[in-house]
Specification:
The chain has about 375 residues and is an alpha+beta fold. The protein folds into 2 domains: about 170 residues, no CATH class; about 180 residues, Nucleotidyltransferase, domain 5 (2-Layer Sandwich). The chain contains 10 helices and 14 strands. Strands 2-6-7-1-5-4-3 form a 7-stranded antiparallel beta sheet. A 5-stranded mixed beta sheet has the order 10-9-8-11-12. It has a two-stranded antiparallel ribbon with strand order 13-14. The radius of gyration is 25 Å and the shape is globular. The structure holds zinc ion. The site of zinc ion (ZN) has 8 residues, from loops.
């Protein structure tokens, strides 16, 4: 299991200069490597491999002074990044998705670089991060690092502050015996409702923050283009954007902690996040992103606790009656589930959460006795105890 720690860095002026220059050198190298791949393909119809590009770095360094000033492994990681973006591109083609050819990175579009090996190129010394070719940068380490340190990535945010993401490798937490399973329905009115009655509200602090953001943006729009004051106003907007993003993340961390602490297995609907992003309604798209992050955070925290997260296909979970299974059609505005068959009256989201939980547990039971499972019918035939 891998764990990432993010710590704030406080580089001095010279170090900041070196960090910025390294980032810029990496960006230019990235674009050159991308161009090389593109040209090779256009001329020969073939590709150029990751190893070839990595080998060529040695030659490039002899003629390019900027490259020589950056740690060799950091440069090698740039070739790895190119390889990864091409791998992803070919994977999208294979999966029949929109391919999206890897793009050249403009100024401000390249935000981080990586030291892939601990000890050789970077080290942590009491309160400082020692980086090859950069120096010993002051670091605020707000928590101890568990496990074996593997690599680190230096990241510059939109405001110009630097932080480091340190990745460590931990032993996997043994899985605990599962006693309690909850289903979780995510929504707009509540962030999430669990089948045991737990309600997670959307962050309330955001409403005030968003109002302030709108005010700052109005001010920015009134400033003359190219003026000093406009630049100041732009910085204020960026700073406030960052604050809102942090508040949102903080809330999602707390919410996912609640979920993981309240059960051994958490079942979500497998939401089609990509499909939902085509929705142009802003508040909706933000909510979509929040749900995705909530599921992701819950998965990470569950893994550390030896618990598990399962996903079930989203179908009719809000329409079916969780008590008798009757189909009760309701529009989005109907907040209460009223079943004409068995008389069950229940909050709409809670009813859906119970359905999500049952979809998984019934599916499992069905698979265990060899019947066609409800939740994951497609997998029933290939499950080992069926063969
Ligand atoms: Zn019913």
């Amino acid at each position: 299991m891998r764990r990432a720690y993010k710590f704030r860095l406080y580089p001095n002026r010279e170090q900041t200069g070196r960090l910025e220059r390294t980032l810029e050198t990496c960006r230019i190298l990235y674009n050159e490597l991308l161009a090389e791949r593109k040209v090779t393909y256009e001329v020969t119809g073939g590709g150029i491999s990751y190893f070839e590009q990595k080998r060529n770095l040695v030659k490039m360094k002899k003629v390019n002074d900027h490259l020589a000033q950056v740690n060799a492994q950091v440069l090698q990681d740039v070739t790895r990044r190119i390889k990864r973006s091409f791998d992803a591109f070919f994977r999208r083609i294979r999966d029949g998705k929109k391919p999206g050819y890897p793009r050249f990175k403009g100024r401000g579009r390249y935000k981080s670089f990586t030291y892939p090996q601990h000890v050789k190129s970077f080290k942590i010394k009491s309160g400082r991060l020692s980086l090859s070719k950069i120096g010993e940068v002051r670091m605020f380490q707000h928590r101890p690092i568990e496990g074996v340190i593997k690599m680190c990535t230096l990241k510059r945010d939109d405001i110009g502050d630097w932080s480091v993401i340190i990745v460590s490798e931990l032993k996997d937490t043994p899985k605990i015996a599962i006693e309690e399973t909850i289903g979780v329905d995510v929504g707009l009115k509540n962030l999430a409702v669990a089948s045991d009655g737990l309600i997670l509200e959307p962050p309330t602090c955001l409403r005030g923050s968003e109002k302030k953001l709108a005010k700052l943006q109005r001010r920015l729009s009134r400033k003359t283009k190219g003026s000093k004051n406009r630049e100041k106003a732009r910085a204020k907007v960026a700073r406030h954007h960052r604050k809102i993003a942090r508040q949102r993340r903080d809330h999602l961390h707390k919410a996912s902690r609640c979920l993981v602490d309240s059960a051994d297995r958490i079942v979500f609907e497998n939401l089609n996040i990509n499909g939902m992003l085509t929705n142009h309604h802003l508040s909706k798209s933000i909510a979509d992103a929040s749900w995705g992050t909530l599921i992701q955070f819950t998965m990470c925290k569950a893994e550390s606790a030896g618990k598990s997260v399962e996903l079930v296909p989203p179908r009719n979970t809000s329409q079916l009656c969780s008590q008798c299974g009757a189909f009760v059609r309701k529009s989005l505005s109907m907040r209460t589930h009223r079943c004409p068959e068995c008389g069950l009256v229940m909050d709409r989201d809670l009813n859906a959460a119970i359905n999500i939980r049952d979809k998984f547990t019934l599916g499992q039971r069905g698979r265990a006795c060899g019947a066609v499972s409800v939740g994951r019918g497609d997998e029933a035939g290939s499950s080992p105890n069926y063969r």
